[in-house]
């Protein structure tokens, strides 16, 4: 069944689930659940945020008829591996002052289609500054239609991939024409929002709060605490720093909760001092470029986004990575204006379009509780606190994906499957 533009995503997903399992037309129908969905779905049943478990949600989706239930947390960890590696690569090339390299600093995150769409339309000059990484949803789709298809001995077109998302913009993201495999097979076939899923569960009498816990399916059903944080403002940055710190310094980051970029402030900022591991390429570059003291700050490029700049050498063989988080598009515009005027400078910037991030997404259940996004955010922080693994690079399922399939982060294959491009002016109908 191809996607029919005139029919809502959720209706087409249900139509796929309603094909009898013994029919030759039945596809292998899989679900993948975004971080912010798991804390808000309880509200569809009149319960407070976070009062049903991710395991109950996995069970509910199985009872709806999905053949397998995966966790988008896996792809959020994968995003950190790819995006963190890209950031480090940009830092190295910046230090090496490579005139051939066309990816400047600062780097902006790319996992929010609301931000990407606004950037393409209103700030096309920023395209080179935005990470080329696909969002976790689209990475998951690409992994399902290749790695998983191979493991299950299925043709990609015989898998129907359904994302459960807090976001109405994720449908347009999945519809982008280049988000597909060869032959035009879509990476993500349909997107259901949290609120739509709540309605469908109730209509089909799947009583989520009464269900037992079950596990997400392997091999792409595990995620770290860092991945959980993708569901709220500041979370992508926090997860990225947990990994980048260890990759750059060779040491574990002791303070896992970065309070400076937690909470609901409109613009949040932090700086992290990193001493590259002795003998590493970054340590060598620092030695060459910053032997005594930092160079005077100067524009990094003559492009239209100048004077965004970087001056991260401390003279002690360390980098001070300056990060910022824009909570909502209004704050993103304010932050970009300040950066372009040179009033502030950052090396890595997270932007999420919805105030509070995905916990406040347009696809979440409606609530009259004015504190609902704070409560959803607190529920995500709690899941991170309790996670057995809290750093993305420690996720064994992601490590196995690289070993068995991708090689290493930012490899040629990883670029083909997990990275994307942007279109100045935006994509029609989004
Ligand atoms: Fe979607 Fe909003 Fe999350 Fe962006 S912040 S991915 S628009 S829910």
UniProtKB/TrEMBL annotation:
UniProt name for this protein: Iron hydrogenase small subunit domain-containing protein
Organism in which the protein naturally occurs: Edaphochlamys debaryana
Signal sequence interval, chain numbering: none
SMART domains: Fe_hyd_SSU
Family, as annotated: Belongs to the NARF family.
Domain Iron hydrogenase small subunit, first and last residues per copy: 367-426
């Amino acid at each position: 069944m191809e996607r029919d533009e005139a029919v809502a995503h959720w209706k087409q997903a249900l139509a796929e689930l309603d094909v009898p399992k013994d029919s030759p037309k039945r596809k292998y129908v899989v679900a993948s659940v975004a971080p912010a969905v798991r804390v808000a779905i309880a509200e569809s049943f009149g319960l407070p945020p976070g009062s049903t478990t991710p395991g109950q949600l996995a069970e509910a989706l199985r009872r709806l008829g999905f053949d397998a239930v995966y966790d988008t947390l896996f792809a959020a960890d994968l995003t950190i591996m790819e995006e963190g590696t890209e950031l480090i690569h940009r830092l190295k090339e910046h230090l090496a002052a490579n005139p051939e390299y066309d990816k400047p600093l600062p780097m902006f995150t790319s996992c929010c289609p609301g931000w990407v769409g606004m950037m393409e339309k209103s700030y096309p000059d920023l395209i080179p500054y935005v990470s080329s990484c696909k969002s976790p949803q689209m990475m998951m789709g690409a992994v399902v239609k290749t790695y998983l298809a191979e493991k299950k001995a299925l043709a990609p077109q015989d898998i129907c991939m359904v994302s459960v998302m807090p976001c109405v913009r994720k449908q347009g993201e999945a519809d982008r024409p280049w988000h597909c495999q060869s032959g035009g097979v879509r990476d993500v076939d349909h997107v259901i929002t949290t609120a739509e899923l709540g309605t469908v569960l109730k209509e089909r009498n799947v009583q989520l709060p009464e269900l037992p816990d079950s596990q997400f399916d392997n091999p792409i059903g595990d995620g770290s605490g860092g991945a959980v944080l993708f569901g709220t403002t500041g979370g992508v940055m926090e997860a990225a720093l947990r990994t980048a710190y260890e990759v750059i310094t060779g040491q574990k980051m002791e303070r896992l909760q970065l309070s400076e970029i937690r909470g609901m402030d409109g613009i949040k900022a932090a700086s992290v001092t990193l001493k590259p591991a002795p003998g590493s390429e970054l340590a060598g570059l620092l030695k060459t470029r910053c032997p005594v003291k930092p160079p005077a700050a100067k524009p990094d490029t003559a492009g239209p986004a100048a004077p965004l700049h970087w001056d991260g050498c401390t003279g002690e063989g360390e980098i001070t990575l300056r990060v910022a988080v824009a909570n909502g598009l209004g704050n993103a515009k304010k932050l970009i204006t300040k950066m372009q005027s040179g009033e502030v400078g950052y090396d890595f910037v997270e932007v999420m379009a919805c105030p509070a991030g995905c916990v406040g997404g347009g696809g979440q259940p409606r609530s009259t509780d004015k504190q609902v996004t704070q409560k959803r955010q607190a529920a995500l922080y709690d899941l991170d606190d309790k996670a057995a693994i809290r750093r993305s690079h420690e996720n064994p399922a992601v490590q196995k994906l690289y070993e068995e399939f991708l090689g290493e982060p930012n490899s040629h294959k990883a670029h083909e499957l997990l990275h994307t491009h942007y279109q100045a002016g935006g994509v029609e109908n989004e």
